[in-house]
Amino acid sequence: MEIDEEKIDEAVLALLYLTLHDGGRAWKSFDWDAMNRLHEKGLIENPVGKAKSVLFTEDGLKESERLFQKLFAKDS
């Protein structure tokens, strides 16, 4: 099976929004490769380090919220 990494990245970014706390931080308990790709895309700060959470960039926070709504919100 071939995996669409773009879809994985979108889902991880949306799920990061689910763990949003302290205004712009999210728990970083996701696949390291996906987290690195999100960092390379400028959506999160560097995920490497001892901290258990990662900081969204301004664009990353907006995109995370949009994807969360798109993927997980019920239609009215």
TrEMBL record:
InterPro entries: DUF6429. Residues 4-74 form the DUF6429 domain. It comes from the Bacteria. Pfam families: DUF6429. This is DUF6429 domain-containing protein. It comes from Marinobacter fuscus.
